[in-house]
Structures are given as structure tokens and as C-alpha cells.
Amino acid sequence: MSYSNEKAVAIDAVRRAVQLCQMVQADSIQTSSLEKGDRSPVTVADFGAQALICQQLAEEFPHDPIVGEENSGELKNPEAAHYLKQVTGYVQRFHPDADSAVVCEWIDRGGHDVADRFWAVDPIDGTKGFLRREQYAIALALIEDGQVRVGVLGCPAMPRNFEHPHQDIGMLFTAVHGEGATMMGLKSSTAMPIHVVAEGTHVHLRFVQSVESAHGNAALQQHIAKSVGITQPALKIDSQAKYGAVARGDAALYLRFPSTRSPDYREKIWDHAAGVLIVEEAGGHVTDMLGHPLDFTSDYRMVKNQGVVASNGAIHEAVLRAVSEV
Predict the structure, then answer these.
(1) CA torsion through residues 80, 85, 86, 92, sign
(2) What is the per-residue pLDDT for 38?
(3) Is the four-CA dihedral 298, 141, 122, 196 of positive or negative sign?
(4) Options 31, 43, 88, 127, the catalytic residue
(5) What percent of the chain has pLDDT over 70?
(6) CB under 8 Å to 154, separation ≥6 — which residues?
(7) What total number of domains does the chain contain?
(8) Residue after which a domain boundary falls, among 193, 226, 242
(9) Which three-class secondary structure state does DSSP give residue 246?
(10) Are 179 and 186 within 8 A, CB to CB?
(11) Are residues 215 and 156 located together in one domain of the fold?
(12) Which of 46, 122, 238, 271 does the annotation list as catalytic?
């Protein structure tokens, strides 16, 4: 089955969401945020980006459910009225006739119920990175029969080359199942194939992990990386941009293990689906920390999995052995 239309729509939706996020940053010297029930931040850009993506998906694929990270509950609180007004204003730059009620409706099209075919959207993965004006990603994936079929990552702050961090900023990663992975500039229409780092290329034999230490077990991750021969300091970046870094060969390994403070934590589909396909289509391999394939069918939380290991493939079994020994 061809997914060319789904890919084109996903790319366009992510690009529009990127534009909204950049508008918010351009207008705000200090971007403010609300706090969700889990104490994680959510910004005007998170809500606006999800509204745009959900509206476009519903228009193009009206029968496809959407599993999204955000909902409009926080925005409907009276004390958040000014946030709702701001969100609506940004969405109106793309849809001038949309009012606040319509914008909330679009946001809430992103529910939490998985299906045989559905879209997973994270309007801003790495909100703290967005607030710091560092790495963040707009992530969109189509999942059908439990398999990720299309994945798109918009990474507005990611340079083409981390060795030149202030040049050629803003990357778009795409993948379709069975068709390979590509990367292009956010303002470009020319995509180039990307591949994971080859075995024996020691200059990029490093691993990538979250900036936020609370997002994983940093000590265990560093131990595992060293045990498989990775001695260079970790590349620390926020969001699914880490998957992009592995897919294009900046690093050979991405580890995300549950924090010792929340050992029963389970990852959410929207935090990984797009990146997983991009790494695998670039020649890499992704499992949980026990070697099981990631399950995208049971729930919006990946309840059957624990942790994530994304690698160039060549070192994957060695990583899993090291985990089992620990």
C-alpha cells in the first residue's frame, strides 16, 4: 500500500505547526507556560500546534482517530482565559474564522484511544527545550495494524551538523515503512537519504540522552554505554530530535530507561512512534530495554514495554546483553 498522500499531508501539517511555534517564540521574549497535572509544562505553542495538526488530519482523513498529548481542559479554566485567547489568536493566523470554541474542539480531536489505524501527535516534544530555545520536535506518526507506517519529525532548532551548531538550522525528518528515511531543511523541498552510523566509525560512536535528568536513569544509561565501548561524552538534547541524531549518524545509541524515582513508568506512544520509524528506516534498530518490540496497540501508554533502546543496529545485541547483566 502506498502512503504517499499520508506522507505529504503529515509533512505539511508538521511544517505549519513549526511555523506557529516559531511565531510564538518570535513574539515572546520569555515564553510562559501552564502546568499540567503531572507537573510538566504546556505552552500556547503546544495547544496551537495540536489544533492545527488535528484540524488538518480531520479534514484530510476524517475517519482516522488521533491520539494526541494535549487536551483543552487547562485552557477552559477561567484563570487561563488569556492563554486561550493567545492560542486562538495564533491559530487564527492560519484559520481566520476559527473562534475559541472551535480551537478547543480541534485540540480535543486528539484523544487517547488507539485503533487499528490512527495518528499519534506530539505537538511539542521537549517543551522544556522549547522554553529554553533549544531542541524540541513536532512529532507525527501514522500507525496501522500496530506498525508505524509514516513518521515525520520537525526539529526547528536542530542544525544540519552539530559540529556547526549555528549554521543551517531547522531539519525535517521523514520515513515511510519500507521506503527508507530522509532529511531536509524545514524550508527545503529537497530530501536526502539518511543512514545510521556504520559499524567501526568510532568518531560517532557516542550515545545521546535527554537534557533533563528526571527523564531517565542517567547513571545506568552511561554505564551501559561504556560497557559496549562508548567512551565519548553523551550528546545531550531534548525531544525526539535524539532519534534524528541516531538516524543520520550523529550517535550510535539512544537510551531511555525508567528513572529510579518512577521505576514503573511507561512511555507514551506520541513520544516515540515517529522517531522509531525514522531510525529503523535509516538502518537502525529499536526495542525496549528487554529486547521486546515496542507495542503501539494496547494503549496510549506502551504498557507492555519498559524503557527504550535505539541503536545503529550493529551494537544492539551487545547493549541488551549489558542491560540483562545489570
Answers:
(1) positive
(2) 60
(3) positive
(4) 127
(5) 94
(6) 14, 15, 17, 18, 137, 138, 171, 172, 186
(7) 2
(8) 193
(9) helix
(10) no
(11) no
(12) 46
Give the pLDDT confidence score for residue 234 in this predicted structure: 86
Report residues of the chain scoring pLDDT below 50.
Answer: 29
Q: What is the DSSP letter of 212?
A: S
Q: 58 and 115 share a domain? A: yes
Is 31 a known active-site residue? no
**3-state secondary structure (DSSP) of residue 128:** helix
Question: pLDDT of 37-60, one tens digit each?
Answer: 665 788 999 999 999 999 999 999
What pLDDT score does 212 carry? 74
Backbone angles phi, psi at 116, to 5 degrees: -65, -35
Our measurement of the distance from residue 296's CA atom to the centroid of its chain's CA atoms, rounded to an integer in Å, reads: 15
Last-in-domain residue among 193, 226, 248: 193
Residue 215's pLDDT is: 61
11: cell is 509533512
127 part of the active site: yes
pLDDT for 226-242, tens place per residue?
Answer: 999 898 888 899 999 99
